[in-house]
Amino acid sequence: MAETKSAMRKPVFTKVDQLRPGTxxxxxxxxxxxxxxxxxxxRPDGPQVRQMRIAECLVGDETGTILFTARNxxxxxxxxxxxxxxxxxxxxxxxxxMRLAVDxxxxxxxxxxxxxxxxxxxxxxLVEYELVxxxxx
Length: 137
Known about the structure:
Layout: H1 2-6, E1 24-44, E2 49-61, E3 64-71, H2 74-77, E4 83-94, E5 97-101, E6 107-111
Parallel strand pairs: 3-5
Antiparallel strand pairs: 1-2, 1-4, 2-3, 4-5, 4-6
């Protein structure tokens, strides 16, 4: 087991402006600019009723901002001005625009406040993409 531990790769952190549609496996350190609850409903599955919560959070670093879709327990961590580490994040396309999300294979960790200021005038979620399939002959 010790041999596999040493073989683990160090995480490579990317910046917000390097994110592209349809990619995954991103590690980012971002600040939460704002957080807004968009869905909160009870889901009856079994003896206990589970709450399903979804919040849209504007997150960013010194290169730009992007909308992050926080689900369930991630919602509590995404408070305004908090600095979080997103591990194994992926880009989801929603109505032609990019959204950042972390599924069950990734992690959201609150960390100590970062020293950078968020560049709010470069919002990648406002860029609309049209995905086109190219057929090579």
